[in-house]
Fold this sequence. Notes:
Rna Polymerase Sigma Factor, Chain: A, 2 domains, Arc Repressor Mutant, subunit A, 0% strand
Amino acid sequence: MPTQAPRRYGRPRMRVVTDESQTWLRELRDPATREEAATRLHALLLRAARFEVSRRRSSDVDDLATQAADDALVAILAKLDTFQGRSRFTTWAYKFVLLEAAVKARRRAWQGHEVTIDDEAWTRMAAQGRSADDSLATGELLAAIAEAVPRCLTDHQRHVLTALALDGVPVDVLAERLDTTRGALYKTLHDARRKLRAELEEEGLLQ
């Protein structure tokens, strides 16, 4: 006789996930249960934030984790209607707090560090690249980039490109220092790279 596949008891996993997520949404939306549900969610977010901050070896773990959990909870409650059910509600919520924790840890690490723009940074990069690489083409490309940066970019584009691409300044830290947004900086970075590429293509250095 053919062996029968074992029977599965209980509800399918996706049904369990959906039920759990809908319970979170219902309780967070209902004024009668919102406070208790938000308290439970905050506790979950706080544990995730502590793990993320500790992983980044940041000081003041409890303070940063609490700030991250607080801000993430506010953002989650404001965006409940955007949850599409593609994962557990808690998995979706963790993304908010992990981002908040990472941003706050990076900002704390850069606290007291001055973000300065070195006008000679690109020239030094080209010189270091030529000395470290035997490829003539690579050396020529680096030298062309160093010459093109001040020539074809605006001061703001040059500052943003230098800070993010050469100096390793986190984008959220730079956004805070320049009183702008991450989105605006990414747009500036994209425009700067597009200008540089067009300039290098015109010189025949890029295909």
